[in-house]
Amino acid sequence: MADNRGSPIDWSRLPHGGDLFGELHLAESAPPPAKRPPMFPGLALCGVAAAAAAWLSDHYGFPIILLGLLVGLALNFVSQDPRTHAGLDFASRTCLRWGIVVLGLQVTFAQIGAVGVLPFLALGVIMAVTLGAGLLGARLAGQSRYAGTLAGGSTAICGASAALALYGVIGKERLSQAQFALTLVGVSLASALAMTVYPVIATQLQLSDAQAGFLIGASIHDVAQAIGGGYAVSDAAGAQATIVKLARVALLAPLVALTSLALGPAGDAADQPVWRRLALPWFILAFLGVVALNSLIPVPEQVAGWGLTLSKSLLLLAVTATAMRSRMDLLLEAGWRALVPVLAATLASFAAALTFAYILL
């Protein structure tokens, strides 16, 4: 192109007015940046479902975590609305992590030391046996090793709390939320049944208070149910079950670390450097930090009670949200086979705990 004098136009010497106009036009016509989806709808629905589970548990004496799962599964249709996703995801992840951190207020190193060296080593063996039984049960039932790890690990430590922590390491890429929810249902049912049956078995076998407390504390999944089962035998058995159970809770961090090493990273984490892969999740490190702080500066009993209530509330929200995000069609596909690893781990845990109760006490 040339100007009126016939000379060619040197575009590089002209002001960039055209470019500026184009940029302004694009800026005005471009869609506004996407807003972060609100968390309130999902959190509100999850909170209402969790409150309903808490009310049912308080009035009918049913395990609160199991009721949270069942209520969440019954309301899973609400997750079809995309507006609920942000809140439900926040509850299932963030509430879970902080619930585990606050759980550290229940454990001190002095309580772990009170168990004794040999009984504590026995707890490690029981944990290994239980984890192996979960893996074996998963293999026999045609389930993945991730399902076996989740069932065995949650049974070996502290039920739903351990299952939630382990699922954070396993990842939803390797184990569906439906399989996770079904495992949680099995673990909660097994723990509730054990709290009822194990004290009766201990009485029929004429175990001493120390033996009964070790058996119940080393084999019942949930913390509250293990303590309740111990006190159902006697006050001395209840005190022993409490100490043994809290020592099991302290094994949560080593179990998560070993599981992370054994399974390797999931998804995009496979490209991370080795030192990042070996690092514990931040909430497990925070759990250990709270345990250390609780050991150095004893927390008043009332504060510890509030901490337990807060921990159970956060974990209830996490469990309920996870159930609400689960697909019922995948649950139906899994069927009864998904519960086999939990059953195998529960039986192995009881048998190993009973054996060591006879040998050590």
Question: What count of helical segments does DSSP give?
Answer: 18
- Termini Cα gap: 100 Å
Mean pLDDT: 79
Number of self-contained structural domains:
1
Descriptive account of the structure:
Helices cover 74% and strands 0% of the residues. Helix 5 (109-115) packs across helix 12 and helix 8 (160-170) runs parallel beside helix 13. The chain has 361 residues and is mainly alpha-helical. The protein is built from 18 helices and no strands. The protein has helices at 17-29, 40-60, 64-74, 85-103, 109-115, 117-140, 145-156, 160-170, 177-204, 209-219, 223-233, 235-250, 252-263, 274-278, 282-296, 301-324, 328-334, 340-360.
Would you kindly provide a brief summary of this structure?
This protein is an all-alpha fold and 361 residues long.
Keyword list:
single chain; about 350 residues; mainly alpha; about 75% helix
Topology:
Elements: H1 17-29, H2 40-60, H3 64-74, H4 85-103, H5 109-115, H6 117-140, H7 145-156, H8 160-170, H9 177-204, H10 209-219, H11 223-233, H12 235-250, H13 252-263, H14 274-278, H15 282-296, H16 301-324, H17 328-334, H18 340-360
